[in-house]
Amino acid sequence: MYSVIDLDGLPAADRFSFWWEAVARSVVPVHASSEDAPSFWAEMTSVDLRGIQISRVRCLSFEARRTPRLIRRADLGLLQLSLTLQGRSGIEQEDRQASLAPTDMVLYDTSVPFRAWTLPEVTADGIVVQFPREALPLSAGAVRCLTARRLPGRSGIGALLATTVRQALRQAPALTRADAGRLSGIVVDLAAAVLAHELESGPETMPSCTGETMLLRVRDFILRHLTDPELSPATIAAAHSMSVRSLHRLFEAEGATVSAWIRERRLEHCRRDLTDPLRGRQPVRAVAARWGFTDPASFSRAFRGAYGLSPQEYRRQWLAGELSSGR
């Protein structure tokens, strides 16, 4: 769950290539160059929070490019949210470029080519939060609106996220698997809140994202009412003064249906509860009912379809340590 990669003990001539091979395994493959390559130094500490990875990286200056060819070779559908702690850096993606100073954050999509760099003024220091695209309750269009834009991390909701990820790394050696599962949800929720705040507060700078803002509001409403078994396209549409047809069109643009999106979110919450030792004695049917599943048989079929195991077997294997943290 907790790991450290450093270059101590390696010959200077081997450090640069070793480092970027380690980055390819731990983060994503990139092509890298550096004026400091002959004397390169870097260090990375990481914690895996059940599929959400938080890494602190200190290193000398570099430039990294993720190319279409590298993406075709390995594309896991990951998003990365980077927080600058020291030094100046930047990222370019989809014709947008963000220049970053300490406390700034930026989102980028590893399925889309990008160029990232740090300046050689001081040793760069930053944190990268990596998570599956589907973990965020944001549409693909919203993600496109938000990549390669500077996000403030000095105050407000951004400061809460920055503090949380820094503390997660500091406390990582003391975390249990159950702690990691709970913290994973907190980090994703805070990241979603930072991005939602930016999307809602910047319509004048993102005029093409008006539809994404409405979809974000609808999804936020759904998440706040997931426990209501009466939640349906009709009730959601009524709460937003739109027709059911208009609601379906919002989701169709993302290649999904309203009902499917609700089911996926409910199943993920059920999965979290089933892996929580504090709920180990709670009947599976109670977990299902808590998240709006009124028919235990239908819930069991849906859960098996999503995760490959029955809810009971998934819980047993997870609590016995037989399932990987990412599953």
Automatic annotation (TrEMBL):
Q: Which PROSITE patterns match?
A: HTH_ARAC_FAMILY_2 (PS01124)
Signal peptide (UniProt feature, chain positions): none
Cite the InterPro entries for this sequence. AraC-bd_2, AraC_XylS_family_regulators, Homeodomain-like_sf, HTH_AraC, Tscrpt_reg_AraC-type_HTH
Which SUPFAM superfamilies does UniProt cross-reference here? Homeodomain-like
Any one Gene Ontology MF annotation carried by this entry is:
sequence-specific DNA binding
Pfam families per UniProt = AraC_binding_2, HTH_18
The HTH araC/xylS-type domain covers 216-317
The highest taxon in the source lineage is Bacteria
Q: Which UniProt keywords apply?
A: DNA-binding, Transcription, Transcription regulation
Protein name in UniProt: Helix-turn-helix domain-containing protein
